[in-house]
Amino acid sequence: MGDPCCLNSPTRVLSLSNERESWQLLTSLVSEVYYGFVGPISTVAVTVLFLIWTYIPEPWLHSVGITYYPSRYWAFAVPIFAMVTVVLAIGFYVGLNFMVTHPTSFNTMFDEYSREPTTFADMTRGKEQRIEPLSDIGRKTII
């Protein structure tokens, strides 16, 4: 039997806690491995079942013994609903960003990349003029 002072040693407690942490880490890794395996396999299985249900004629399904399934309307409607939902979500997101910024805020006109024009050439002078560098027209120039 071990020495009683060794059983109460802080090193012994530390080694027990390290073993417990490694066991918890191992169990969490095992569950992640299962999720990583089951996720793609179930996605492929559901996709194959969806395609079979969509493209196999009803008499063939009845001959196999499959008589209870959803209407074929949903094979067309659900993907359309999903695509419309994504488009509307993007539209609402952009709209909410426009609503957050005050209409008279200078942030709607200028940002850190705005540049004042180097010169403001009168467009009526001369027939040929050089193209001005790309820049933003300042408020003082317009007013």
TrEMBL record:
Keywords (A to Z) from UniProt: Membrane, Transmembrane, Transmembrane helix
Keyword Membrane among UniProt keywords: yes
The keyword Transmembrane appears for this protein: yes
Main location: membrane
Membrane topology classification: Multi-pass membrane protein
Residues annotated as domain PIG-P: 33-138
GO cellular component, one term: membrane
TM helices/strands, residue ranges: 33-56, 76-100
UniProt superkingdom: Eukaryota
Subcellular location: Membrane
Pfam family, one: PIG-P
Protein name (Swiss-Prot/TrEMBL): PIG-P domain-containing protein
Biological source species: Stephania japonica
